[in-house]
Amino acid sequence: MSQTSPCLAGTMSQSERLLLDTLSNVAQTRATHAMPGGFYTSQEFAQLERERVFRQSWVCIGHVGELPANGDYFTVDLVGEPLLVQRDGKGEIRVFANVCSHRGNLVAIGRGNARIHVCGYHAWSFDLEGKLKRAPLMQDCKDLDAAKCSLPTISTTIWQNFIFVNLDGTAAPLCETLAPLESHIRDYNLKERGLHYSREEVWNTNWKCLAENFMEGYHLNATHPKTLGTRSGSELSEHVPGNGHFSAYRSHYKPGAPQRTEAFTLGRGNAPQREAVAPSREESPFSFNFSVFPNLLVSSNFHRTAYVCLMPLSIDRVELRLGFDGPGEKPESDRLAEFIAYVDQVNSEDRAKLETLQHGLRSSFYKPGPLAPENYEGTVRDFYSFVAKRICN
């Protein structure tokens, strides 16, 4: 085992030293075993994650389809930082720190449409470019310089219709780091798709448990025997090598399973039904699932893209910003409701396992077991490597 990495200052417990030694090894070699429980349950480690993973990386906070019109906005908290995400008067998406430059109250709450944002505490107002427009009763204040009172701007980029921010402003250009991934998803035309549905919810598990679960096919047979497992068995998973910034795997369909392309829709009772046009694309026999580290999870098909953005709230609570998009107009309400019901069933199966997993990971008797072969849990190894390098390098 390597020497403890200087990741933490101050006093560390024996379990924390073990975790950091493990991560130091994983940063240099491919993981063979699962992570110690502290990886998911330690408050000290969670603080390191906030600083070294979430502040220093490009982090997905939503989909451009959530802001269809000029003036549309939504708010989100990212590792304790309140953010205001909006489409300005020229159609550009901007992200600001959602804190008034007077005494720090929130400038906006929830989501909506506005031509100007007014802090409800003292009525300082800001335009859609973040500039201070009005500060009541401050005309005689010689210290007020409106030019210095704009809302702080957060580094922002759009990739494949997803909105990313980098809190510390030092991350390398996202489009460059994800260039190898784009060759796998080019035919899905994600940038041309419209958002059909989105919502937020909170699960009682560590964000990393969910990130790992979404991106491995090993659990499909046991966790989803009557949903995903009927179409894509665990044994049909195929790991796709990443580059340290993303991970991916193909979830191949079982022989005879209906193909998920524009030519197929969910029929009554969640049973896929064939329409008149047969699929002709080479890639129709599988779903392509990928993760952009640290928090964007995507399952791509020719007929629909499902995604989840993970927002850690605490060591055992995570907010999911989830949705799906697709080519063309939003489907009819009954088809939409049917697909949502199917997704909810799949998610409920995962959620039940992940919330009991969080309980088990706290056990002092838990000893990490060996990981399954690459096609089944290679994506988990990819994720471990990303976190380890961010924490220990």
From TrEMBL:
SUPFAM superfamilies: Bet v1-like, ISP domain. Pfam families: Rieske, Ring_hydroxyl_A. Keywords: 2Fe-2S, Dioxygenase, Iron, Iron-sulfur, Metal-binding, NAD, Oxidoreductase. Residues 58-165 form the Rieske domain. One of its GO terms (molecular function) is dioxygenase activity. The keyword Protein biosynthesis does not apply. Gene3D superfamilies: Naphthalene 1,2-dioxygenase Alpha Subunit, Chain A, domain 1, Rieske [2Fe-2S] iron-sulphur domain. Its cofactor is Fe cation. It comes from the Bacteria. PANTHER family: CHOLINE MONOOXYGENASE, CHLOROPLASTIC. This is Phenylpropionate dioxygenase-like ring-hydroxylating dioxygenase large terminal subunit. It comes from Bradyrhizobium macuxiense.
